[in-house]
Amino acid sequence: MTEIDPKLFLTAIFNAAVAAADPERTIRDHLPAKPKGRTLVIGAGKGSAQMAAAFEKVWDGPIDGLVVTRYGYGARCERIEIIEAAHPVPDTAGLEASRRLLAKVQGLTEDDLVVALISGGGSALLPSPADGLTLADEIAVNEALLASGAPIAAMNTIRKHISTIKGGRLAAVAYPARVVSLVVSDIPGDNPALVASGPTVPDAGSREDALASISAYGMKLPASVMTHINSPAAEAPRADDPRFARNEVHLIASAGVSLEAAAGEARRQGIEAVILSDSIEGEAREVGGVHAAIAREVATRNRPFPKPVLILSGGETTVTLRAKGKGGRNSEFLLAFAIGISGAQGIHALAADTDGIDGSEDNAGAFADGSTVSRMRAAGVDAKAMLASNNAWTAFNAVGDLFVPGPTGTNVNDLRAILIR
Fold it and tell me: Do 158 and 226 contact (CB within 8 A), yes or no?
């Protein structure tokens, strides 16, 4: 396989994974029955605008609607209004979008249909603080969550207990209309109630679960927030609430499906592929170290998989912030991975977020190989010091190995692809 360019190969793998979550194809396969009354489209997430544009193409009846997405992630729609707001920390545009979404679904009848287009990122895009709380409180909670190292399920359980829109509350307001949720999952395990903190899909997570996570991860939240979560007013609707009886939830894209597509592309190019898991969680640098150990074992001992091989994994790692460097969970994973394979021959890797953005910068992730650390050193960058200061973006930028595909229009979590020749 000497004729394969590793970066081009890994980019093709990423593109295949993203294509498998293409909203037009997946929405076409999950269209709900047309209602007697109105069809209203709502949505939130980093892929929601592209989902809305796709829905307009495949739905041949009258519709109107409103969806909110991240700044720069908009798409051209004729009948569905697109609002852009801040992610990963909420802002006033998101607050106004939440208010308008709640108003949009009021006054509907049982003959009406609400189609909810939900994708990852909706939690931050839909700030709607509970009574007695403010946008500043919700921002403080979001910042604490992002720095805590807590898994996404725990984060979203906390978020839904300080909100008037998350945890199924948006669907409850739409009652008695039927709500059909089309969900693109970025959650390990693919529980649709946890994607975007489930504005239209309730789950069983309780405020006791939220309090347990706050304690377990040592989060320091505003006193007003703690008072609210400790009160019965924080309780979210239960999944067996009769207001949800007619509703439907369809998972239309997920990490598992995209990983299978990535594996298929590798095999098409003559490389065997193995999938470790589509739901790997944990501290990004630690997961990176484990993946590096597996890659070295294959490279040096031809086990547990014979080479050449592409090792794939998905899920969502977390980063416990120790400093204020630039980066995201994929670049931090990959910097730890690069340190772990430093000097090894024939190992090439890409770690990237399938939505096209890793953290707060414009890259989806980065590339690495056995020469990455030495090239960083030649550029005046100490890889271990960069990792210690959460500064992976700066490290990869110094050697020109950032991966910048731009917004993809979907979001099925992280893709880690390791080619061993």
Answer: no
Rounded-to-5 percentages of helix, strand, coil across the chain: 40, 20, 40
How buried is 55 (Cβ within 10 angstroms: 0-12 exposed, 13-18 middle, 19+ buried)?
buried
- Cα-based torsion angle of the residue sequence 360, 362, 367, 371 in order, rounded to the nearest 10 degrees: -80
Burial class of 11 by CB neighbour count within 10 A (0 to 12, 13 to 18, 19+):
middle
Q: How far is C-alpha 32 from the geometric centre of its chain's CA atoms?
A: 25
Token look-up 């000497």 returns 2
Q: Which of 301, 252, 298, 254 is nearest to 274 (CA)?
A: 298
CA–CA separation, 296 and 155 (whole Å):
34
Characterize 193-214 residue by residue with b for buried, 16 or more Cβ atoms within 10 angstroms of its Cβ, and e for exposed: bbbbbbbbbbbebebebbbebb
Average the pLDDT over 7-13 and give the result: 98
For the entire predicted model, the pTM comes to 0.79
Give me the pLDDT at residue 359, please. Answer: 79
Q: Which fold has domain 22-253?
A: Rossmann fold (3.40.50)
Write down the domain spans for the chain: 6-17+256-420, 22-253
Instruction: Convert the pLDDT of each residue in 202-238 to its tens digit.
Output: 988 899 999 999 999 999 999 999 999 999 999 999 9
Query: Counting Cβ atoms within 10 Å, is residue 186 exposed (0-12), middle (13-18) or buried (19+)?
Result: buried
Same fold: 6-17+256-420 with 22-253: no
CATH homologous superfamily for the domain 6-17+256-420: MOFRL domain (3.40.1480.10)
Peptide bond preceding 232: is omega within 30 degrees of 0, i.e. cis?
A: no
- Chain centroid to Cα 311, Å, comes to 21
The confidence score (pLDDT) of residue 1 equals: 44
* Whole-number CA gyration radius for the chain: 22
Residue 163 Cα distances to 65, 107, 153, 159, angstroms: 22, 21, 16, 7
The phi and psi torsions of 315 (rounded to 5 degrees) equal: 120, -160
